[in-house]
Amino acid sequence: MCGLFEEQMPLPARNVAIDAQDLYYTLKTIRTALTYNPNITHCIISFAYYFWGYDLSLSTSIYQYKRVTEVNYPVFKDKHNFSGDPIGETQTFLTSITSLKKSLFSFETWAGQYIDIIKNNLADSHYFPYPREDSEVLKHDDVTNREKALERAESHNKFFKYTSTVKENQKLFADFLKEMNNYGIKILLYVPPVTEFYRNSINPCLISDFYACMEPLKANYHFKLIDLFNSDAFENTDFADYDHLNDLGARKLAEILVHELEF
Questions:
Q1: Which of 201, 227, 230, 248 is the most buried if burial means most Cβ atoms within 10 Å?
Q2: d(CA 189, CA 142)
Q3: What InterPro entries does UniProt report for this protein, alphabetically (predicted)?
Q4: Per-10-residue mean pLDDT, the chain, length 263
């Protein structure tokens, strides 16, 4: 869950990951970071098995829907495959403010102050509040954990049926790797660790399809891939839920990734 601590990295680092991001916007974020700092030499990307078939802009989930309208579109002015009107969605609140309300509540002043507060709060902050040390897994018995993990895994098992998205993402990532190789930027991909409950619920075809997409890229481009899906370095206490690390797990992950970085 956006889980690396920058201070653990051996070089000056910035964590630009956000929740529910897909490959398209992940790569867009990295390229944007490069426009601000062309001296970047290393890039670490979390790449779950289901990532090839995931397109945030086509999601029907309201949570992910808002990731386009309230996060990615306002930042990048790019709606990708989103079929709606992200500008209209983000203006709903403003258009509901009548002239009378603006007069009564000094709307412009309030809005300006509110934006200033948000900017100050986000000036050098993380996407999630800290600390994140609780574990959802520890709150339930094994039967409940298996049920909840199965529900979560099933939401990911379906992604490879979206063949057009898989093909688009393969092309996007091949272009990205070629570009990064030309820049001399070293790419480290990792399949994130998961709890045993989630691991036992994943469709094996998802894993084989993941590597079927990855192998041609490994043959043509330089990058490093480490698979932590079956790692025994993590315990249930290291997870915020069934497939996201909490702070304890994030620190363990950083230690592993630092060891894998190439200099």
A1: 201
A2: 31
A3: SGNH_hydro_sf
A4: 79 86 94 95 97 93 83 89 76 56 61 62 52 83 96 94 96 98 98 97 96 97 98 94 93 95 84
- In the chain, how many domains are there? 1
Tell me, yes or no, whether 76 lies in a domain.
no
- What pLDDT score does 107 carry? 58
* HSE-CB of 219 using CA atoms within 13 angstroms: 6
Look at residue 133 in the predicted model and tell me its pLDDT: 75
State which residues form the domain around 33.
6-62+135-260
- The 3-class SS string of the chain reads CCCCCHHHCCCCCCCCCCCCCCHHHHHHHHHHHHHHCCCCCEEEEECCHHHHHCCHHHCCCHHHHHHHHHHHHHHHCCCCCCCCCHHHHHCHHHHCCCHHHHHHHCHHHHHHHHHHHHHHHHCCCCCCCCCCCCCHHHHCCHHHHHHHHHHHHHHHHHHHHCHHHHHHHHHHHHHHHHHHHHHCCEEEEEECCCCHHHHCCCCHHHHHHHHHHHHHHHHHCCCEEEECCCCCCCCHHHECCCCCECHHHHHHHHHHHHHHCCC
Ramachandran angles phi, psi of 8, nearest 5°: -85, -15
Q: Is residue 229 classed exposed, middle or buried when 0-12, 13-18 and 19+ CB atoms within 10 A define those classes?
A: middle
pLDDT of the residue at 125: 47
Rounded CA separation 224/30 (Å): 17
